[in-house]
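Hi F.,

I've been meaning to write this up properly since the lab meeting, where we talked about keeping a consistent format for the predictions we share between groups. The idea is simple: the sequence comes first, exactly as it goes in, then the structure tokens exactly as they come out, then a line or two of notes. No screenshots and no reformatting. I'm using this chain as the first example so we have something concrete to point to.
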Amino acid sequence: MGSKIEIIEQSFAQIKPNAEKFAASFYVNLFREYPELKPLFVNTDMEKQQKKLLDALILVVENLRHPGVLKGVIEALGARHVNYGVLQQHYPAVGKSLLETLKEYLQENWNSEVKAAWVSAYRGIAKLMLKGANYQSLADIEGEIETQEETQIIPPKVNINSEIEITKSKVELPIEIIENSFEKIKPYGK
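Output, unedited:
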């Protein structure tokens, strides 16, 4: 089928026409399986939150070939999530809900290769977010991420950076994400 990056790009392209419904379904799945996480969103405008999720997914998918761009942004995202009350043990729930939602939307295009690519990407993202949040590592919680149709643990951690080529092409970052994230960390500037 192709490299993991190509698989993610192609599968996400299939989701894009229904991106808003996809984001809403992610939170439905998350809260259904992990109702204890709902209080983290009690003061959150869920429509805006769904847009933020989509923006983050688009940022990641569009920059998988540019890990230097992603690293700082994803670490900052992890640091910001600490302020929202997100703990290290919440990451497996998000990973499971993301996989479940991807499976739901990709339907017959969901297979072990697509799943492995997304698992690898999520692990790379979670690792960077945990680093940004100053949490230990994803290794402590990896065994908790399981698939719905299988009870075996997802394959060993794959470093997403190991198969990403850094190119020297110009990369544009979504200004709104950077501005919003900077506004949230400004009070801690000192």
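Notes:
The mean pLDDT is 80.
Residues 120 and 157 are 7 Å apart (CA to CA).

If this format works for you, I'll send the rest the same way.

G.
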